[in-house]
From TrEMBL:
Signal peptide: 1-26
Domain (PET hydrolase/cutinase-like): residue spans on this chain: 64-255
Record keywords: Hydrolase, Lipid degradation, Lipid metabolism, Periplasm, Signal
Lineage: Bacteria, Bacillati, Actinomycetota, Actinomycetes, Streptosporangiales
EC number: 3.1.1.101
Name used for this protein in its record: poly(ethylene terephthalate) hydrolase
Superkingdom field: Bacteria
Organism: Actinomadura fulvescens
Catalytic activity: a butanoate ester + H2O = an aliphatic alcohol + butanoate + H(+); (ethylene terephthalate)(n) + H2O = (ethylene terephthalate)(n-1) + 4-[(2-hydroxyethoxy)carbonyl]benzoate + H(+)
Length: 291
């Protein structure tokens, strides 16, 4: 994985030079209507395998899009995930993970930047999708669900995801081992904070600090056993299933994914490989399966 990040120490150094977006608060949007029968305490691994859609990848100057190949023949709109890379990385360094999300029915707009901390390039991808949704002949014409948007990123891009979530269009956020230059007050929807047990670049305690500052929204924290800072690169490693399940529940109304995060004995609450799982008071108010 080291080839994906030529200078590992630059994650912290470059993040320290990035700009911080001013925080913006708003009333949380409602959780979408549920569409699938509930399952008790499923493992996140259920969502680690590819979904039912083939995947098409197109690269523009600012954004690389990963999306279901059958989008044009569908009569429905597809939720969106905007993505920010770690320092020095590009979307292809996370190719397997971004393809996975697209295969489960999401349009992924990955910023073509090696320095995603501000979140600006991530939001530019969302702006571009909004325009393409109105463009005759575009593969995205009439197919972009701008009412269901998530933001995610790794390392510096994890901080970028938090900063990009100041945008009122972003409903939920997944910062993976996020860098330090962000403010949790930017969030106005549920957040899933992911750390790596063996991460020596962004230690779990630093990720936990973001979680502790997120009491105004439903927030969950957990760390992946044995994961290093580079585990999310490539196909996402052990972060594949949990991130996909989060999108499936919050953006696609997949009730089977509810029990991964919510209710007594949730799927990440029993220990290894998900360590030190914590849910704040607002997250604990979200009912579990069959509640």
């Amino acid at each position: 994985m080291r080839r994906c990040f030529p200078i590992a120490a630059s994650v912290t150094a470059a993040a320290a030079a990035a700009l911080l977006v001013s925080p913006l608060l708003a009333t949380p949007k409602p959780v979408p209507a549920r569409t699938v029968a509930a399952d008790a305490a499923p493992s996140p691994d259920r969502w680690a395998a590819p979904g039912p859609h083939g995947v098409t990848v197109t690269k523009e100057r600012v954004t690389t899009f990963y999306f279901p190949s059958d989008i044009g023949s569908s009569a429905r709109r597809f939720p969106v995930v905007i993505w920010g890379n770690g320092t020095g990385a590009v979307p292809s360094n996370y190719h397997g993970l971004l393809r996975l999300w697209a295969s489960h029915g999401f349009i992924v707009a990955a910023a073509n930047t090696r320095y995603a901390n501000s979140g600006n390039q991530m939001r530019a991808g969302l702006d571009r999708l909004a325009a393409l949704d109105r463009t005759d002949g575009s593969p995205f014409e009439g197919r972009v669900d701008l009412a269901r948007v998530g933001a995610a990123g790794h390392s510096q891009g994890g901080a970028g995801a938090i900063n990009a979530s100041a945008d009122q269009r972003v409903d939920t956020t997944v910062p993976i081992q996020p860098g330090p230059l962000a403010s949790a007050s930017s969030l106005h929807g549920p957040a899933l904070y992911l750390a790596g047990e063996k991460d020596t670049i962004v230690a779990p305690a630093r990720v936990r600090t973001f979680y502790n500052a997120s009491g105004h929204v439903p927030a969950i924290y957990t760390e992946l056993a044995a994961a290093t800072h580079f585990t999310p690169a490539g196909n996402g490693g052990g972060f594949r299933g949990i991130t996909t399940a989060w999108w499936r529940f919050h953006l696609a109304g997949d009730e089977q994914a509810r029990g991964v995060f919510f209710g007594d004995g949730c799927g990440i609450c029993s220990g290894s490989p998900w360590l030190h799982a914590a849910r704040n008071s607002k997250a604990l108010q979200i009912p579990g399966p069959n509640a």
